[in-house]
Please model this.
Amino acid sequence: MACVRDTSNIPIALIAGDFTYKGLCLFKSGDSNLNLKLTQGNIINEKFDGHFWIEAGGLVIDPSIFRTLYSNHIPEALKSEIELRFGADKGCIIASPEEMISSSDFDYIPKYSLSDNTINGLIRGFFAHRAKQ
Model:
């Protein structure tokens, strides 16, 4: 994201929030702020049940939704329905928020825009967790 900000005027943000498909809430972030505090070593180690996506230039960019379908979080019948609609082995989905609802029935409900410090803390937390495994 910093690279985009450094080289263009495209507005970009990492958004956290709720995600629904045909009105069914698949990820719910809750109504309070993420309240992610940087801990010792600037690492964030919190649980979050919402969804993350990128908003840039008026578009929703979701690089993980199709991979998420193969997690245990999504019911099998719903996985099959979405796969029939979009095809197997898809990657990223990119569209305006309006197109997401009208053409895909995906609804991205933004709750928070993450700061660069929070993003960096999440990344450090990921690598710290991975190093322990």
Notes: The chain has a mean pLDDT of 80.
